[in-house]
Design goal:
With 105 residues, the protein is mainly β. The protein has no helices and 6 strands.
């Protein structure tokens, strides 16, 4: 892994489950780590869902191997949230490749 390619700052959010007073299980995303990553464009398109135009973008994030990324995590990059689709740990490069899609808010 070449450290000079990790030129973008990203925030990793992981799910934290709690039970409220009524016994409901609540899930909230809590900031787990702020780290540097390499961000590559994967794909993108514009679709019409329920009479609303939605932009579906996918990015590839390369982070160091110690970053706590899970399949249920969210990544914030440039003030936009991305939902993690897949996580692949690569031993030969000592990094993690994360494919994520933009969350439509």
């Amino acid at each position: 892994m070449i450290a000079g390619r990790l030129n973008e700052v990203v925030k990793i959010y992981n799910v934290e489950s709690t039970v409220n007073d009524y016994g409901e299980r609540m899930e909230d995303y809590v900031l787990s780590m702020t780290t540097r990553a390499r961000v590559d464009f994967n794909s993108g398109n514009r679709t019409n869902e329920n009479d609303e135009i939605v932009y579906n973008y996918q990015k590839t994030f390369n982070v160091r191997s110690y970053v706590p990324v899970k399949d249920t995590s969210h990544i914030e990059w440039q003030e936009k949230m991305y939902r993690v689709l897949s996580v692949e740990k690569r031993r030969e490069y000592n990094d993690i490749v994360v494919i994520a899609e933009l969350i439509n808010e």
